[in-house]
Model the fold of this input.
Amino acid sequence: MIVTIYHNPKCGTSRNTLALIRNAGIEPVIVEYLTTPPDRDTLKSLIARSGLAVRDAIREKGTPFAELGLDDPMLSDDQLIDAMIEHPILINRPFVDAPDGARLCRLSELVIDLLPSPQQGPFSKEDGEVVIDENGQRVR
Done:
């Protein structure tokens, strides 16, 4: 049962997602994608398995998105993937790859339904928001 998170340790959503994976008793493979970006095939697979369009997997905020002209609707998926490979900061995060699928966990709690194991105890996000109660059940 291998779970992989494409992680940015400077991102609160990514840290919360990693903590939820661990709260399910799983120690994932952690890929710090800014220093070790996924190759083209892996990135394309993650996006496809997540059910996303390539444009939905691109991060705009805090990236060279605008400077690179990536908002041009004429750019192909392959051109967008090329930009993401060349500038990994453009890859939205965190992606989680699990046995039953992949997901972009822009809300960290989206990872819960992807994991093969249930949450094992209470969990609150870094900001204090309770996600899992003392019985290991999702709050909302």
